[in-house]
């Protein structure tokens, strides 16, 4: 392992340790108790909820599964990256919401004893768990033939491949059949795609079901699917380009960039229409005075800088202009994707916090604050996602068949 790789891993481990300390402190010292009074300064949903929404709505697998279903050859080259990113982000996202909820073991009591099948939150968690299971199973079939080849090496990677491929269980698992494996992967990919769409839209429905004016919008399920496509296409572009830079070689995976560029462009344009819809429909005073007040906060007051600069300019206008006028430049595509992700992250923060900034009865405006422990945990969680992806990428056979 090169010195730079060792240094990179040590930095990530240090950041993960910081996140663990933040989670530990939050568990024993609540960051902001939410009192049952209208004048209370606490937010029920805070940074960890925004981070959870950001992570689980990185829809790389949905894009790849759709490409696989539609037989888009270019997207098949990046299927492994898409599945791996989705598994990591969903798993880390579920860890994030578990830390926010704390006593997650009590969920098993509800699941076994008194499941509320009418609960939107129950189905949100179930759909994400199902999506994660389908992705792991789909990934196993996608990787299996290459894992069997890798298992023949006398190295740690060969040992890992032998374990993951289940080759040690006998001859049935030791026989490679690429065509049959990919047939199974496509079938499971359809289930993963359907479950992903249900999970994304159900998460949007969770907010729509509340009485908070900024969230109580029937378009949220569709909007969340659109933003998941933005995040997924942008993240895949970043992963492909960064891998190409690090390896210093051309790859068949780069053939996916033109398709992903179009997906990112059209999803950004769709998101701009949704942003306009929310600003006008929810903010129109004759419809809801509370909604109008919240939109005013977002457009002209406390969250105006976040909204206009990070969400609109950085997250939509700048990427769209770059994607329209720098169609062949890979560096420009990298910048556009990075800016789109920054805009999506800002949107998640604004969406969570700005909706809770004004109390319903008293009208008291609550100061927006993020506790240092939350920031520590957020940094640690993002570092954990990067660490897991890096380790899995190094251990698994990621090259497409033509390049092996």
Quick overview of this protein structure:
By secondary structure, this protein is mainly alpha-helical. It has 16 helices and no strands.
What do you see in this structure?
It holds the Pfam family NrfD. Belongs to the NrfD family. The protein has two domains: 8-32 and 40-105 and 117-209 and 371-398, no CATH class; 212-370, no CATH class. The chain contains 16 helices and no strands. It has helices spanning 3-28, 47-56, 60-69, 73-76, 79-101, 106-113, 120-150, 156-164, 171-174, 178-208, 220-247, 257-282, 289-300, 304-325, 330-354, 372-395. The longest helix is centred in the middle third of the chain and has 31 residues, at 120-150. 40% of the residues are buried.
């Amino acid at each position: 392992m090169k010195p730079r790789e060792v240094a990179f891993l040590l930095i990530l481990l240090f950041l993960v340790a910081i996140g663990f300390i933040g989670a530990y402190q939050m568990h024993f010292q609540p960051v902001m108790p939410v009192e049952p009074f209208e004048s209370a300064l606490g937010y029920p949903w805070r940074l960890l909820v925004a981070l959870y929404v950001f992570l689980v709505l990185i829809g790389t697998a949905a894009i790849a599964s759709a490409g696989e279903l539609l037989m888009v050859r270019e997207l098949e080259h990046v299927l492994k990256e898409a599945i791996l990113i989705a598994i990591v982000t969903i798993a880390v996202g579920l860890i994030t919401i578990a830390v926010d909820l704390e006593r997650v073991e009590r969920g098993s009591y509800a699941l076994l004893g008194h499941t509320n099948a009418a609960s939107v939150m129950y189905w949100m968690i179930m759909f994400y768990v199902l999506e994660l299971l389908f992705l792991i199973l789909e990934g196993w079939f996608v990787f299996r033939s290459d894992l069997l080849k890798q298992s023949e090496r006398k190295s740690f990677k060969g040992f890992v491949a032998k374990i993951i491929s289940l080759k040690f269980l006998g001859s049935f698992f030791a026989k490679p059949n690429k065509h049959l494996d990919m047939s199974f992967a496509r079938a499971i990919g359809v289930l993963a795609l359907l479950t992903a769409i249900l999970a994304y839209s159900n998460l949007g429905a969770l907010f729509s079901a509340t009485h908070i004016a900024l969230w109580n919008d029937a378009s949220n399920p569709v909007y969340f699917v659109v933003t998941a496509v933005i995040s997924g296409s942008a993240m895949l572009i970043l992963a492909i380009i960064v891998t190409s830079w690090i390896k210093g070689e051309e790859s068949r995976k780069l053939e996916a960039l033109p398709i992903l560029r179009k997906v990112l462009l059209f999803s950004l344009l769709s998101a701009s229409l949704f942003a306009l819809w929310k600003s006008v429909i929810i903010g129109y005073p004759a419809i809801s005075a509370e909604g109008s007040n919240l939109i005013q906060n977002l457009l002209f007051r406390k969250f105006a800088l976040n909204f206009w600069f990070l969400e609109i300019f950085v997250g939509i206008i700048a990427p769209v202009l770059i994607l329209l006028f720098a169609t062949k430049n890979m560096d420009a595509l990298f910048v556009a994707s990075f800016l789109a992700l920054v805009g999506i992250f800002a949107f998640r923060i604004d969406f969570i916090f700005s909706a809770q900034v004004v109390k319903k009865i008293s009208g008291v405006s609550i100061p927006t604050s993020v506790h240092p422990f939350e920031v520590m945990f957020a940094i640690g969680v993002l570092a954990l996602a990067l660490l897991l992806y890096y380790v899995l990428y190094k251990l698994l056979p990621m090259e497409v068949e033509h390049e092996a």
